[in-house]
Design brief:
EC 3.5.5.8, single chain, CN_Hdrtase_a/SCN_Hdrlase_g, transition metal ion binding, mainly alpha, two-stranded parallel sheet, disordered N terminus, hydrolase, 243 residues, 11 helices, disordered C terminus
Length: 243
């Protein structure tokens, strides 16, 4: 029998660790906290495991379709556009999203301060959460992975034009870029301007070109573009000096 402390045994363990893939990836501290809090809430009777499953399934299927329809309707109806800017919660409810009860089965949103930001010929809005990843999930669904990265969050507030350029969005110098920083209780959504070439379009046709990225502010709606694919990229090794 070999000595457990021998070099031979050490080499064997090293080879084994290198070739055997773990069953699961290492979980983060946040995931550990979520598991512990979820199990404690179930134990204390705040909600059941079935209710948690139901809400998780609901949250995963939310998408930006209601928000796209809201913007399309605002493009066609000036009165509704005014409502969207002045009472964003009421405009959301008009397209089927009730922020006080977004799930439809008794689970309210933890915030009701929601504002739709209307772009103009001289102002372009883009949203971020510099501290974490606050996002208007009841109307836009889950945030994209890049929105939650420190790279996006920290750099957008400092170099917005350079970050937008990495998404393929190059804005003229005479257009002001306003970065709106979400927080724990306040959420934003961008209402982009209606693009040229869409005269006579129906609400359904307009909604198709209003992508999630347009509603965040890192893209502009264009006829024929109905996906969130990033078509051009450029590196930002030194974003502070990028053109």
């Amino acid at each position: 029998m070999s000595d457990p402390g021998s070099d031979h045994h050490h080499d064997h363990d090293h080879d084994h660790a290198r070739t055997v893939k773990p069953m699961v990836d290492e979980i983060t501290d946040f995931e550990v906290l979520e598991i512990a809090l979820r199990e404690l809430c179930i134990e204390k009777g705040i909600f059941t495991a079935e209710e948690h499953r139901r809400f998780t399934e609901f949250a995963e299927q939310i998408g930006p379709t209601p928000a796209a329809r809201l913007v399309a309707r605002a493009w066609l109806d000036p009165e509704f556009a005014e409502l969207a800017v002045n009472d964003s919660l009421a405009a959301s409810k008009a397209v089927g999203v009730d922020w006080l009860e977004p799930t439809g089965f008794g689970t309210p949103s933890d915030f009701v301060a929601f504002q739709i930001l209307a772009d103009t010929p001289t102002v372009h809005h883009v949203i971020v959460c510099a501290l974490c990843s606050c996002y208007p999930r009841p109307i836009l669904g889950n945030s994209p992975e890049w929105y939650r990265t420190p790279n996006y969050r920290r750099r957008l507030v400092r170099w917005p034009r350079q970050v937008l350029a990495e998404f393929g969005l190059y804005l003229p110098d005479d257009i002001e870029v306003r970065v709106e920083d979400s927080n724990q209780k306040h959420r934003f959504m961008v209402m982009p301007m209606r693009p040229d070439g869409t005269d006579g379009w129906t609400e359904d046709q307009l909604a198709e070109i209003i992508t999630r990225d347009c509603l965040i502010g890192v893209a502009l709606p264009k006829p024929g573009v109905t996906t969130n694919a990033i078509v051009t990229r450029r590196p930002a090794m030194h974003p502070g000096t990028a053109g």
